[in-house]
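CATEGORY: protein folding

GOAL: derive structure tokens
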Amino acid sequence: MRSSFTAAFGIGLAIIALAVGGIFLMQRGDRIELPGKILKVRTAPLDEESSIVVIDFRITNPSNVQFEVRTVTVEMDDNQGKSYLGQSVSEVDAKRLFEAVPVLGPKFNTTLLMRERLGSHGSADRMIAARFQAPLVLLDGRKRFMVRIEEVDGKVFEYAER
């Protein structure tokens, strides 16, 4: 009687473990991750006290769920540990910016906009332009730029320059 109980108990545990494993296996693509990397950073002065940065980056959505952008921000860390938050530039203003500041070079990608969606298993090259109330010397001597993309459900993804 004791060995039949042990065998039934072991079989029951195996069935439960298989069911739990199957549930985890079915849900593996439902978790949103957004791997990405910064491809290119360009800076230029606007005047003596302000500068512009253009960051081109690539993001990928490997999940089974569509990703929707809530906000995109750019932050700069200088060598003294101080952080500066940039003011994002819209797509329309970015087009004008590239015309007005030729030292930035050509505009390679479109701006990642609020409410933009990236489909499941998709990838996109985007850019963000941001104005900093700081001279160009400070931007060029930075420690790093950080691009933060917040998803509509509140999850934040960060991409560091270096």
User: Anything to note?
Assistant: The two ends are 66 Å apart (CA to CA).
